[in-house]
Structure formats: C-alpha cells, structure tokens
Amino acid sequence: MPKGSCLCGKLTYEYSGEPVKTVLCHCLQCRKLTSSAFTTNLLIPRENIKIEGSPKHYEFIQETGDKFTTSFCGECATLIGKETDAESFKPFLILEAGTLDEGFEQTKPDSEIFVKHRTPWLEEMKGLAQFETKP
What we know:
Layout: E1 3-5, E2 12-15, E3 21-25, H1 28-34, E4 39-45, E5 49-52, E6 56-61, E7 67-72, E8 79-84, E9 92-96, E10 111-113, E11 129-130
Parallel strand pairs: 3-10, 10-11
Antiparallel strand pairs: 1-2, 2-5, 3-4, 4-9, 6-7, 7-8, 8-9
C-alpha cells in the first residue's frame, strides 16, 4: 500500500490500488503552490485514501473557473494534495506525487495539462497526451 507524508511527518496518508491517472500540471496556480515548474498529480479515488493528521486548507479559483481546495501541513507547509469542484474530478483526491515516501521514481505520468503555460526551457514529454488547458 503506497504511503506518503509531509516533510515533518505530522500529516501522513496511504492509499490502495493504482492511481486512475498521473498528470503533470503546468497551470500557474500549481506553479505557485509548489514553487516549481509543474506538479505531478496522482488521481486517487476518495474511498481508496486515508489521511492521518489535521491538514490546513486553502481555496482558490483556477483560470478555468474551477474551485480548488488544497490540503497542507500547518507545521511545515508541505502541500499534500488538492480537490476540486470540477465535475469530472469530484470522485478523486489529487495527491502530490512528490510526497510519496517510496516509489516516486516509478510514477510515470500519462499526460501533461495546461501546456500553454509550460516554461520554454522544458520540452514536451514524448509519449504523453498533451492538453492546452484541462482535458
């Protein structure tokens, strides 16, 4: 069963099964959330994940108009994941793959979204579905 945590270990999670999708997101909000060029997101059915600890939350509206709620550690500020009111994403929690305790190296993405914001010094990842915004 895959497990993950925040940097200080006060928030932990585990999930069963395989992610439904693994997506690299280049949207401007994900960049700011992680202070990086993109996020690596695991779409996990809500019923397959268990989070321990007391995450803090932050809400924002993405450029598509979808409302997102993030979950992060109040102690070390590690972003664990997010959820959205977008209809096709309601059954899922979106975990940040970088918070996996083991196995991140085997987490191969299947698509890139919001590629219109991909930074010019990153090339398209060959073999992945490409979407200008969300699929």
